């Protein structure tokens, strides 16, 4: 059928945001090929109303394998189910999110159906004339961008970073089919069972969901200087992030690392100081709505992506910026900072 598939994710019957982000990627590819876009979901107790949002966000068909044994993600069973669907429907290409489950599921499936897989893609296109999926990702430590294709095997498969694209707006006029499928008993691998879930002892802020992120890089010089960034983030009710260089130096914990080797974020406002703008870091922030950069080097890569740039010494700029914001907030105008930047 040569359809484009995206793999939706759910938790306790609720769809995760990455399900809709993937549809925006898949919709573009399906339109380039003049074919249909299908969303595949495995889980339990998901309502038709919930599934309908996948159609409203770009899917033409939704395949939902519904069974209580699929409530929790078990990679052995999930891979068996997806491989069985691939063998039956023969999709052209499949996109999954580079989440912990997507990064576990897709390599399993690639081996089972004997095809290739490109991880952490930043760009996806359909090659004119061949309909090959062109999968672009950083390589060799981010020094080059490699475009990969799988000309001799199908489906062509890729994982995409969460927050690297924005979901399409809901279109309540869109129509599509919801196809509920039964789980075949022989596909269930009962060697692994979910017996419980335990969070890390240390709680971290989910930087991927933050509306405002203030980040520092190697130019911050030392951990103590991150106090200025924390103060700035507080003025915006935001959170603090960091580049890989800053995390490697122990100035911030890994859960706050932004970039290809950390988190991909899509806040309404991103402010960075002492960040040069490596390819890896830019890939992690490119879908931010507004980017403000502070750097002494007017030729720094970060200014190529920034909406607003301040060329100056961050140790002079940040204190003055915090002083002005505190004065603004004390005047009862803090709420005016939030709706629009």
UniProtKB/TrEMBL annotation:
Its cofactor is FAD. This is Electron transfer flavoprotein, alpha subunit-like protein. GO terms for biological process: fatty acid beta-oxidation using acyl-CoA dehydrogenase. GO terms for molecular function: electron transfer activity; flavin adenine dinucleotide binding. Keywords: FAD, Flavoprotein. InterPro entries: DHS-like_NAD/FAD-binding_dom, ETF_a/b_N, ETF_a/FixB, ETF_alpha_N, ETF_asu_C, Rossmann-like_a/b/a_fold. It comes from Alkaliphilus metalliredigens (strain QYMF). The keyword Flavoprotein applies. Belongs to the ETF alpha-subunit/FixB family. Residues 4-191 form the Electron transfer flavoprotein alpha/beta-subunit N-terminal domain.
């Amino acid at each position: 059928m040569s359809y484009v598939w995206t793999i939706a994710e759910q938790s306790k019957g609720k769809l995760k945001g990455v399900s809709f982000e993937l549809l925006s990627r898949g919709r573009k590819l399906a339109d380039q090929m003049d074919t249909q876009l299908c969303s595949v979901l495995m889980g339990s107790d998901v309502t038709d109303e919930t599934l309908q949002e996948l159609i409203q966000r770009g899917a033409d068909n939704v395949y939902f394998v519904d069974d209580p044994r699929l409530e929790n993600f078990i990679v052995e069973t999930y891979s068996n189910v997806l491989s069985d669907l691939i063998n039956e429907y023969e999709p052209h290409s499949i996109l999954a999110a580079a989440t912990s489950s997507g990064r576990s599921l897709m390599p399993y499936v690639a081996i089972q159906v004997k095809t290739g897989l490109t991880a952490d893609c930043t760009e996806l296109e359909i090659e004119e004339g061949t309909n090959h999926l062109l999968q672009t990702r950083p390589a060799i430590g981010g020094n080059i961008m490699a475009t990969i294709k799988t000309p001799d095997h199908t489906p062509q498969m890729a994982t995409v970073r969460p927050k690297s694209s924005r979901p399409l707006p809901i279109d309540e006029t869109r129509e599509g089919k919801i196809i509920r499928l039964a789980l075949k008993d022989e596909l269930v691998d009962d060697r692994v069972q979910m017996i419980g879930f335990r969070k890390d002892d240390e709680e971290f802020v989910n930087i991927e969901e933050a509306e405002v992120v203030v980040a520092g890089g190697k130019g911050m010089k030392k951990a103590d200087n991150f106090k200025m960034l924390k103060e700035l983030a507080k003025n915006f009710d935001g959170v603090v992030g960091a580049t890989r260089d800053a995390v490697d130096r122990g100035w911030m914990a890994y859960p706050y690392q932004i970039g290809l080797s950390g988190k991909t974020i899509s806040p309404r406002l991103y402010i960075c100081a002492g960040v040069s703008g490596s390819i890896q870091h830019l890939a992690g922030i490119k879908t931010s709505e507004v980017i403000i950069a502070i750097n002494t080097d007017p030729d720094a890569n970060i200014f190529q992506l920034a909406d607003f740039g301040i060329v100056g010494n961050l140790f002079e700029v940040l204190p003055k910026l915090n002083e002005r914001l505190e004065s603004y907030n004390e005047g009862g105008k803090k709420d005016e900072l939030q709706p629009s930047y």
